[in-house]
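Why do we bother with a discrete structure alphabet at all? Because it lets us treat a fold like text: something you can write down, compare, and reason about line by line. To make this less abstract, here is a complete entry for TRAP transporter small permease protein. Read it the way you would read a sentence in a foreign language you are learning: slowly, and without expecting to understand everything at once.
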Amino acid sequence: MSFLKRPNDFLFRTLVIVASVSLATLSLLVIYSVVMRYVFSDAPDFVEPIALLLVIVIAMFGAALKVREGGHIGLDSLVNKLPPRGQLVATAFQHGCLIVFAIALFFGCLQMVEATMEDRIPIIGLPESLRYCVPVIASVCIAMFSLENLLALFAQKQK
């Protein structure tokens, strides 16, 4: 189990830092945009595309972080009413579904990266594929975190 815990700890810390910096940057960018628009009547064009990229980073990395913490969407009220073995099966099924979702997200976004590689985001000129690279990274993290949780679940059952 430790073979996956150490790399996942590093990934988790990295995602926390990137998501936190992205959220702080987004906050500052929005404040800057509001001040420029309403105080100086000079709205900067570049704020919206950058803000969209930051929102994608925050949402996707935040989702991966919640998977690691076990805070993802689940039917806890139903699962808690099941007997212990049923809870184990439901939780294992949940993590299995998350892994399948992560794989689908990975390949879907990878196709979009390839399809939009030559396109540019208007105003800022960055490759359009950048929007799809973030979910590719997040899907790998979701799969690794779900696998870690699944292995921990079965290791706990063995005890």
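What the structure line is telling us, in plain words: The chain is about 80% helix and 0% strand. The radius of gyration is 19 Å.
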